[in-house]
Design a protein that fits this description.
Number of helices of chain A: 10
Chains: A alpha/beta, B mainly alpha, C alpha/beta
Strand order of the largest sheet of chain A: 6-7-8-3-9-10
Strand content of chain A: 15-25%
Mean pLDDT of chain A: 88
Largest interface: A-B, 54 and 36 residues
Oligomer: heterotrimer
Helix content of chain A: 25-40%
Helix content of chain C: 25-40%
Structural class of chain C: alpha/beta
Shape of chain C: globular
Number of helices of chain C: 10
Distance between the termini of chain C: 16 Å
Amino acid sequence: MSLIDIRELHVAFGEHEDRTVAVDRLSLSVEEGEVYGLVGESGCGKSTVLRALAGLNSNWQGRMVVAGETLGPKRSKAQHRLMQMVFQDPYGSLHPRHTVNTLLSEPIEIQGLGTADRRIVQALDQVGLDASFRFRYPHQLSGGQRQRVAIARALILEPRVLLLDEPTSALDVSIQAEVLNLLSELKRSRTLTYIFVSHDLAVITHMCSRIGVMRLGKLVEETSVDVLLGEGPRHPYTRHLYQASAGYDRRLAQTTAELDFESEPQP
Amino acid sequence: MSPPPQGPSSDSAALPPVVSPPGLKAWLTIAVPQSATQASLQRAYFGWIRFLRNRLAVIGLAVIVLLLLVAAFAPWIATHDPLAQNLVERLEPPSATHWFGTDQIGRDLFSRIVYGSRITIYIVLLVTIIVAPIGLVIGTIAGYFGGRIDVALMRITDIFLAFPGLVLALAFVAALGPGLENAVIAISLTNWPGFARLARAETLIVRSSDYIAASRLQGASSARIIVKHVVPMCLPSVIVRMTLSMAGVILTAAGLGFLGLGAQPPSPEWGAMLSSGRRFMLDHWWMPTFPGLAILLISLAFNLFGDGLRDVLDPRNE
Amino acid sequence: MSSAGDSTGQRAEIAAPILAVQDLSVRFDTPHGLVEAVRGVSFDIGREKVGIVGESGSGKSMTGRAVLRLTPKAAQVSAQRLDLHGQDLRRLSPREMRAIRGRRISMVLQDPKYSLNPVMRVGAQIAEAYLVHHKATQREARERALEMLEAVKIRNPRRVYELFPHEVSGGMGQRVMIAMMLIPEPELLIADEPTSALDVTVRMQVLAILDDLVSSRGLGLMFISHDLNLVATFCDRVLIMYAGRIVESCRASDLKHARHGYTRGLLESLPRIDERKERLQVLERDAAWRDGPTILHQSSGGSRP
């Protein structure tokens, strides 16, 4: 049985004329220990899927089963403990007035786990930060360090699933490499399952074993990375993304320049 | 709307060099804080250093401190009994014995102003202590929960906001009767809506942050999030508004006193002194002037201090 | 010197460079001491697309702004040479500089949400850009604006003319920005992360338009970006910046043969679709890079130490 099973997830916002469908009857499943990549452009709904799964958004329909339990709009503490999230913006995901220590001790307090001190030091160690970082404020840390703290915070509750929402998109290339390596290593040393969301196909193919390509709320293709790199993408949209990820190509750009612009998703 | 994307962040931030001056300063400026207390004290210390750069704000603070000292040591500073009448020495101009002159029943003006500072502080502190927490609580709850709670709380706020401050204060005092305590209640009732709106505005911005989302994902209750996450982000604006509104409170109290609705005679409240001195302005200029100057000075001091505080508390360096 | 061939295979000939920069420096006096954002940068731009690549803090954006003299007031800009078609930009008065900006050098910024006036219709903004530098009637400006909207391949120029910035999508907004910046027919276009806020597919479209316009009008393009891969495939020449200096300069097609430690480090640390790696190479910063020599590739031309 899959660790995560999503059936016919449907998320829509707004009323009447303003009603937009962010996720359109999406179904996917993730096995334990897998790194599943959700790739697509902005507005495709990939972050919405993650947020609905995490329980940040209660306005969804469909069925989501994680570790055998069906999830409802409200989550219990135990359910929260199972899945943690790492956000995109390292500047916005840490409370500016809290020290690293407070940030890491809070989940322990909320969930009522003990031995806070030991857990905090261990969590920092796992992400490659030494104890000197413990009493710093976020503004005293660099972007890469903040993202490590964010990962430490996600891991301190010992979740089984890590939901990663564009965790390296806001980082410099050299720092991205460090963080991606860290994520790969963490996965090797513990039983973790990742759902990795990104718009960058190169990052996704590097990190993931299986990917789902989303467009305008729908899953247009699901494939393993081996197949994608071997036989190539099947769906025309995936093919388009794949080619665009290789960089600028004048001929490719000319053909897509003729595509309908008006159908671009509005901000 | 969120600020423009900054582009990728750099990891090449160097640690500040380790300074080794002796003692307390070393402890406060050490690059790597060893405990939570040290970290917060360090933060306060750096804030203090930044504050000191603003000369006007420091002057404001100095005047406020002076006010507090004068109020605390009034019995020793005052030259005469503020309530002692001496009809022989009435309406005397400033002299060696009476530094600010005397009023129409011979009371020493200087001593009255010194003791009046106690009343001013009493009013300002009381109003602020009542108003800020109420505004903060209502504002953050309305902002965080949104929906019907927000609408209900904001409509109540609107009702209070709809009345001009002094008019509402007058109405309450008229209903409750004149007196210092009632004046304080009346002023409080007109001041809290501003704080509620401010807190609500800040909460709305903070509510959609990722760090709030992260807390929710850990299973934090709404109460915990509001108290530990939202309120700390609202505090800087609220504190600044508190200091800036103190000036307004003093003026409103003076206004009520002027109208005879605040502190009652023979209490040496500055506004009341201003009012009774009005009649004597042309021939005995010292009577309204000194209380007026005192009010002006303190209001200005609070404004300058508040401005400096805002510059320090504004998270610009983050 | 001649520049590298652009992607259509034509050789862009330049007798003299459009922009000649020598020893450009930008310094700030901060409470923590002197901060040197740009330290002695030199390069030329002819009728070609030159990419300036660097991470945050490398000074790439500040370089672009220094050319236009749009640096913050606290900045001290100095250069041994800063010529636009031979004209010395350093000694121009603010008024003269205003005549240069927009008219002879234009700048396209990252996010049209923030660079377009939110309360003016986009068409009017483009027309305004024209009127600022040319004497014309409102009607003529409007006609020119509509022409530009067509030139950036907007299907329905008349409809889009009347839209407000919040009503257009990211890609369209960026095309409006390009139209606005090209309507006065500048000689040099500076683009600071022009496609970073756009989706991958839209990015291609916008770049294609930029590509066409730059070649057909014979403009010089300074393309500032953090995306090494994009710059390598789009531009003719690449300048790599680190800690305020140019550490390597080469033809875009030669980038895989880059020799500087930093460039190689960046290339190795990028995940690539076509090359699967177990682990990404982590960039080891060498202190020597801060002040070490600039690596110039033989056929790159144009970059003077």
